[in-house]
Predict the structure of Regulator of sirC expression with transglutaminase-like and TPR domain.
Amino acid sequence: MHSWRRAFAAEAGSERPDLALLCLLIGTEADPALDGTGMAAARRQLDLLARRLPPSPGGPRAWAAALAELLGGRFGFAGHPGDYQRLESALLHRVLRRRRGLPILLSVLWIEVARRAGAPVYGVALPGHFVVAFGSPDAWVGEGCGAYDSCGGQGGCEERVLADPFGGGRLLSCTDARLLVAGATGAPLEPAMLRPAQPHEIVLRVLNNIRAWAAARPERSDVALWAVELSLLLPAPADRLHYDRARLLVQRGDFRTGASELETYAEALGPSDATAAERVRRQARAARARLN
């Protein structure tokens, strides 16, 4: 295993994973020029941005406003629909350089800058659009957005505030959050969707975004492969990832290894779904046949 991957696995398995470091380590897979010096420079940039925030500006609304003024206003960090078409939009070191990125990477930027300044901040993994929250997560428990609506939504509630870094830091009412969820899934906003996203959940979602980018570009199966392999290094990876990796190996011409991993997956799948396991075995036999 490459040394950067060993570092990624070790950090992902630590008691308190460093979100910025994990995102920068993802960048080493896509950008061979990114080394320890480059990662250290990116972390210094986060430190410097945090130092530009006013000390203890106030409650959640004041923190959100300060971050929006600094990152969205003075430095112009925001997103554009075209950013979804660029791999660099999912790489933290490139987002710091370009000041553009996916909602989740801009949210990582906000979280890391705000955290360094002492803000009560966390990520919120709304379906289809990642945002950030300021305040106590407990304020959402049992009531979801109910009290948020009743106190004005647009930052009127001092206990918790939602902000959209992709939109430059626009404060979100609960109606805004409901519309984001409905637009992505057609389903209603549930209180559980407002819980804090943990670092390994955020990193997995970043990697899933990268895989989605690569899936639309069959010629970039190399990107899809390393994104799957990093996902497998996160705690409690889904069994399906082993199947995805095996299929990518076959796609890339490594028929022997791909077939072997398909067979291993089929054995694990057999007790719960014999029909699916046999289908995977047929795929393994087809891959081995291509060795002849």
Summary: The longest strand covers residues 129-135. DSSP finds 13 helices and four strands in the chain. The two ends are 30 Å apart (CA to CA). The CA atoms of residues 72 and 168 lie 4 Å apart.
